[in-house]
Amino acid sequence: MASGRDEDDIPAASGSPDASLTQDDSFTATSRAGLTYPWGDAAPGAGETIRIADGISWARIPMPGSLGHINSWLLDDEDGIAVVDTGVCLTICSDAWKALYAGALADKPITRVIGTHLHPDHIGLAGWIAKKKGVPLWMTRGEMLTARMIVGDTSDTVPDEAIVQSRGAGWDDEAIERQKTGGWGRFGMMVFPLPRSYVRIKDGDVLDMGAHKWRVVVGSGHSPEHACLWNEREGVLVSGDQVLPRISSNVSINITEPDADPLGEWLSSIDKLLDVVPGDVIVCPAHGEPFKGLHVRLMALRDEHRMRLYNLAEAIAKEPMRAVESFPLLFNRPIGPDQLGMATGEALAHLKRLEVEGRVEREDRDGVWWYHGVA
């Protein structure tokens, strides 16, 4: 299965400025109007779970960093429990799992681990649980292969592709020098070695868990092939980061696919979820509390992105700009050095969407990208 790393070899702390390394939280404003929270602000404590519906329980795994936690969803699977998402590879998370094994899960064997997508707060301990419990990891192919590629990039040297993107976006020399000295490959530090083998899931698959069946609904944009799980009979959607109640998920261009259109994929995924999943389901997100109002939330996310695109296109029509000049039009908070990378990825995603829609053009001036309006 995994490498020879000891199953209890979990670091206590991360050297990252934001130890969660989630890439989940966007810097954009979002509306939460119209949502209801059946459990209010309640959350399960250490070693505890809360029953959400027949076939699913909720555990909360604490994490360092800005988000502070990830929700793990525990699905009844024959005589055991399938774990959906795990937390990062840090002792604060592994200790939470040990408390669950001694508490709410004491008499329930783990049957499989399901990763909604590749970010470390979701699969950081997937390999650890799979190894410790002798169970398989289930993921979509796009997420698993991308995770392997990124985890395997352990170079300490910032790659040339990253410097090219930063310079193109308009970073100054000081910011680029800070990037060069900041190191690389921190993603792998937050992920316990993944199993060499996995079970592939894909859009439309139905995961048979005895009394319950969960349909895989794949979205994209936040990550390559994000799996949501929908129990139609019970009216429950495990949404991962594809739909969050209080924050907008980060949608960025990164160096693995510099010419991608992730915001276009994100908007298409919103339309797909509106079409496929009913609006009255209980939504079980990766962060925040379970809520109702799926369609209201999806339409708010779609409309707010569309408004930002409109405002950005209008501003570029008046005056050419680089990605760094677009920050005040896109984000509802100042962007400091620690947020610069993620903000740049999001800004480039919005600018790429405008390019694809034929509303702006990109000009390369000595390695710096300027965006112009299209007459």
The CATH homologous superfamily of one domain is named Ribonuclease Z/Hydroxyacylglutathione hydrolase-like
> Which structural category do the helix and sheet elements fall into?
alpha/beta
The poorly predicted ranges are 16-22
Indicate the proportion of strand residues. 15-25%
> Which CATH class of one domain is shown?
Alpha Beta
CATH-defined fold name of one domain: Metallo-beta-lactamase, Chain A
Number of helices: 11
Per DSSP E runs of 2 or more residues, the count of β-strands stands at 15
- End-to-end C-alpha gap: 57 Å
Looking at the overall shape, the CATH architecture of one domain is 4-Layer Sandwich
What characteristic shape results from the CA principal axes? Answer: globular
Mean pLDDT: 92
Order of helical and strand elements: EEEEHEHHEHHHHEEEEEHEEHHHEE
The main pleated sheet reads as: 7 strands, mixed
Largest sheet, spatial ordering of strands? 1-2-3-4-5-6-7
Radius of gyration: 21 Å
What share of residues is helical? Answer: 25-40%
Can you give me a brief rundown of this structure?
The chain is 32% helix and 21% strand. With 375 residues, the chain is an alpha/beta fold. It is globular.
Describe the 3D structure:
This protein has helices spanning 91-102, 120-123, 126-133, 141-151, 160-169, 173-181, 186-189, 262-276, 294-318, 327-330, 340-356, and strands at 50-53, 56-62, 69-77, 80-84, 110-114, 137-140, 199-201, 206-209, 212-219, 226-231, 236-240, 282-285, 291-292, 360-365, 368-373. The protein is an alpha/beta fold and 375 residues long. The protein has a domain at 50-247 and 279-299: Ribonuclease Z/Hydroxyacylglutathione hydrolase-like (Metallo-beta-lactamase, Chain A, 4-Layer Sandwich), CATH 3.60.15. The strands form 3 sheets. The chain has a 7-stranded mixed β-sheet. It has a 6-stranded mixed β-sheet with strand order 8-9-10-11-12-13, covered by helices on one side. A two-stranded antiparallel ribbon has the order 14-15. The chain is globular and about 65 Å long.
